[in-house]
Amino acid sequence: MYKIIRNILFLFPAEGVHYFAMNNLKLLCKLGFKKLLAASYSPLHTKSTTSLGGLNFKNPVGLGAGFDKNAKYLNELEALGFGFVEIGTVTPLPQAGNDKPRLFRLPQDKALINRMGFNNDGVKIVAGRLRQWSVENPKSNHSPSRMIIGGNIGKNKVTPNEDAWKDYEICFKELHPYVDYFVVNVSSPNTPGLRELQEKGSLRKILSHLQTINATQHDPKPLLLKIAPDLTQEQIDDVIDLALEIKLDGLVATNTTISRDKLQTTNHKLQMIGAGGLSGLPVKQRSTEVVKYICSKTKGKIPVIASGGIFVAADAKEKLDAGAVLVQVWTGFIYEGPAIVKRICKSL
């Protein structure tokens, strides 16, 4: 059934369809269908894990950052069974992002290309929505029945790299009372110069500062770093060394890639689309390689959330077998539909 609906939706521009679908889902929940959706799509039998920062996840399948940038659809995503949702990327000031169109489908490759550019409502508005969510869904000693919320944070486009640490601090402090964990995003290819912050010196300044702030809180939150699949082995080694040095709680591997290798989509179409981060099936192998390398080199000392090319249970199992403790979907959700969490968890 979803394949028929998907084929119809794919006739229309990708970004508009995203909001059309989610707003209709929101309407269904407002009309009292949330329990019915949850009964249809939530996994029936799952095992919680406490392997990441002491948090209890009701299942290991989460939704990656970039889907619910502004924390508008948490109730709806919970109804679809996600064990955790990462909101953002959030920046201190609101920003419109890059010019449209900026989200493109590559059906032949089961992939997407996006150059959204951290479009979001700004940290204060997002924090307000999360505050309301926390009131409606109070914590109960991190109950496994509660969906975990991650906060993915970044810098504004106009902020120079030397001042980036200030943007991350603002977002960290504003969101700290309302999210369960943080992910520092320096690996998006769609903000000019952002990936330069993946160099060891720049990373140390940002992450060490956040860890210092975190240590002063009465309830420190797990702090993770999201890395690109395009890093060299030497750069990954630098990330690992730094993560161990400053006691990061984990890594998210990986973000989208700037590579266009071995795609079925024609070069003409790719040139028409232009720049952006590629996600989906083409990233699957490289993402798994990065996860496996990190977990093997650190002997599991750094927990990894795996992201990249997860569509079915076999894809998730591949990531977990490589050493990941949790998995995130995004492009797979678009192609497989609302039953993706239930299907993966059932097979796992």
Mean pLDDT rating: 95
Shape: globular
Radius of gyration: 19 Å
Using the coordinates shown, work out and report the CATH topology.
TIM Barrel
- Major sheet details: 8 strands, parallel, barrel
- CATH architecture type: Alpha-Beta Barrel
Task: For the structure shown, list the relevant keywords.
348 residues; alpha/beta; TIM Barrel; eight-stranded parallel beta barrel; 12 helices; globular
Give an account of the 3D structure.
The protein has 348 residues and is of the alpha/beta class. The protein has a single domain (2-100, 116-260, 281-347), classed as TIM Barrel, CATH 3.20.20. It is built from 12 helices and 13 strands. The chain has helices at residues 2-9, 14-41, 74-79, 123-136, 164-175, 200-215, 233-245, 267-273, 284-298, 313-321, 331-336, 340-347, and strands at 49-52, 55-57, 61-63, 84-90, 103-106, 111-114, 148-153, 181-185, 223-227, 250-253, 277-280, 304-307, 326-329. The strands form 3 sheets. The chain has an 8-stranded parallel β-barrel, surrounded by 5 helices. The chain has a 3-stranded antiparallel sheet with strand order 5-6-11, with no helix packed on it. Helix 3 links the parallel strand 3 (61-63) and strand 4 (84-90). Helix 4 runs parallel beside helix 5 (164-175). The chain is globular, with a radius of gyration of 19 Å. The two termini are 23 Å apart. The relative contact order is 0.14.
